[in-house]
Please model this.
Amino acid sequence: MRSTVRAGWRWTPGGRVYVTDTGNKRVVVFDADGNFITQFGGAGFEPGQFDEPVGIAIDKNGTVYVADTWNQRVQTFTPLESENGLAFLPEKQWDVFGWFGQSVENKPFIAVNDDLHVFITDPEGYRIIEFDREGVVVRVWGEYGDGSANFGIASGIAIDAEGRVWVSDGAFNRVMRFTLP
Model:
């Protein structure tokens, strides 16, 4: 099986590294030394399956969030450790009104804050969408441009310790910081 890792990975304080393997429509989990632990997913449309998984985030409780790009949804997974090893159970999913194109630039990223709000980039929509923990839209901001709240291509997203949202804009070669109300 050939692996094509195009976009997402996250390291957790527990020493696990989570990688979205877009070509094989799965998430692969490694330990801190790069040893394989487990994988989950596969091609498809059902819960737990992916079509172009790209962005990945892990919240403070260990829940895994995946930007399932071409299925136009966010999926969450709960880790389950047992004597048989580590497994990830599909928990929630919600639709994203975005991610319409299948271009190289339309690769969404995802971040989760301590309030369990989920932030996604919509690169070709030139915007950021914030959801609450149930997948309900809280706010949307951005449009095309080089202004202080606009984007050319929102190509990365992160939340800092103070809860500020950091977005990289690949088209205008900048990193932007947003303080939410």
About this structure: DSSP finds no helices and 15 strands in the chain. The CA atoms of residues 67 and 134 lie 15 Å apart. The chain has one domain: 9-178.
